[in-house]
Design brief:
alpha/beta; Aminopeptidase; 2 domains; 9-stranded mixed beta sheet; 6-stranded antiparallel beta sheet; 11 helices; globular; binds zinc ion
Length: 438
């Protein structure tokens, strides 16, 4: 049986992180517990002294870093990045709909969700609310219903005889969760007011004025398989990587300079104030090194490992893969390559990561998409383009990417944890770190 306390910590983190907002809050608590203190962009600071810090952007982007006191223009930064969001169903602004005696909530699809997996699941709702109090002051806060409150039932096969051969899903009409059986008019803001008051007793809600609420599956993530070889759960892409990076940074030596950046909105293209195409990281790098020439030196001496789950080879669908590049579950981290820069890896950064894996006691595997299929992308190329930092795109091999319940290999998570731990521990004189600077 594959076993490690880290596995329990990961599964606990994912089950308490139904949305990117909750994931960020969880990670901030972990950072604070381990001596990281907050810096705010709205405050007046540059080049903080030696220590452990974090910066939050709009409650959903997070950067955490360790500063050693060595001039950053000389030492460069060990950078790693991941994304906090996952495809899901988001409530529309006016969500209630009454059909016969059933109260339903209408949704938008967020990102490229594998929609067939959202049927017949016990769904709950979580996210952020904005409200006015008695004095007219505006507040916002997170809520999480936790218990299953909704379901999207499939249509019975007797009413759709071709369901197993020709099923299509209409996003507007087929994906409307059922909330309650009731003939009465429902004021949904009343339900939200009750929930926010229950979770934040001092909220003093007079009026709810907005919500960002997302459905999620209440089934807990689990380690499964005859020998515990797999994890299954929602949002493995990419909360597994987020947890791995923050955990590695917390255990990194304080004598080296390391930074982890976690962005939301990757699943919808990363164009936002806090997405990887926004200015969040660049603003922070300017604060760390305000002098532009010194900052260029710092960036030239830095390297970014962009960590996002990769496609593992699915034994039932082998024809979907390039036969010379078949990442296998539990055989180690995957380096992602693409000639057209959908991934930022080149031979220097890919070679660096492969050598890093070897030293950590595992082998790296390689992934390229078939030439006759479109290749996805991730935050790596966007961050590389925005900052000029050399970058490698990697991730653990996974199955059922963007399903409501994804599958990864238990050992791969532990391999990746070891590799990232080693990365943040590379001394400036180390031959591997020196090699990436040539
Ligand atoms: Zn991803």
């Amino acid at each position: 049986m594959v076993h490690s306390p880290k596995i329990d910590q990961l599964l606990d983190f994912i089950s308490h992180s139904p949305t990117p907002l909750h994931a960020t809050r969880q990670l901030i608590a972990l950072l604070q517990k381990n001596g990281f203190s907050q810096l705010r962009i709205e405050d007046d600071w540059t080049t903080p002294g030696p220590g452990n810090y974090y910066v939050v952007g709009n409650h959903s982007a997070l950067a955490a870093f360790t500063i050693s006191g060595t001039p950053l223009a000389v030492s460069g930064l060990r950078l790693a990045g991941a994304h906090t969001d996952s495809p899901c169903l988001k409530l529309k602004p006016n969500p209630t709909r009454q059909k016969n005696n059933i109260l339903q909530l209408v949704v938008e699809v967020y990102g490229g969700a594998l929609l067939s997996t959202w049927f017949d699941r016990d769904l709950s709702l979580a996210g952020r609310l904005s409200w006015l109090d008695e004095k007219g002051e505006l507040h916002s806060g997170l809520i999480n219903f936790q218990r299953p409150i909704a379901i999207i039932p499939s249509l019975a096969i007797h009413l759709d005889r071709e369901a197993n051969s020709k099923k299509t899903i209409n996003k507007q009409t087929d994906l409307v969760p059922l909330l309650a059986a009731s003939e009465d008019e429902c004021d949904f803001t009343d339900i939200l007011r009750q929930q926010i008051t229950q979770e934040h007793p001092k909220a003093g809600v007079k009026e709810i004025v907005g919500h960002d609420l997302f459905f999620y599956d209440t089934q807990q993530p689990a380690q499964i398989g005859l020998h515990g070889d797999f994890f299954t759960g929602a949002r493995m892409d990419n909360l597994l990587s987020c947890f791995t990076l923050i955990d590695a940074l917390i255990h990194a030596p304080e004598s080296l300079d390391s930074l982890v950046v976690l962005n939301p909105h990757e699943e919808v293209g990363s164009v936002s104030a806090v997405g990887a195409q926004g200015p969040f990281l660049s603003i922070l790098l300017k604060r760390l090194q305000p002098d532009s020439v010194k900052r260029q030196q710092m960036l030239a001496r830095s390297l970014l490992i962009s960590v996002d789950n990769a496609h593992g080879a699915h034994p039932n669908f082998m024809e979907k893969y390039d036969q010379e590049h078949l990442p296998l579950l539990n055989k180690g981290p995957v380096i992602k390559w693409n000639a057209n820069q959908r991934y930022a890896t080149d031979t220097v950064t890919g070679g660096f990561f492969r050598a890093l894996c070897r030293r950590a006691g595992t082998d790296a595997q390689d992934f390229v998409m078939r030439n006759d299929m479109a290749c996805g992308s991730t935050i790596g190329p966007l961050t590389a383009a925005a900052t000029g930092i050399k970058t490698v795109d990697v991730g653990v091999p996974s199955l059922a990417m963007h399903s409501i319940r994804e599958t990864v290999g238990s050992k791969d998570f532990l391999y990746m944890a070891d590799v990232m731990q080693l990365f943040f521990s590379l001394d400036p004189q180390d031959v591997l770190w020196q090699g990436q600077q040539q």
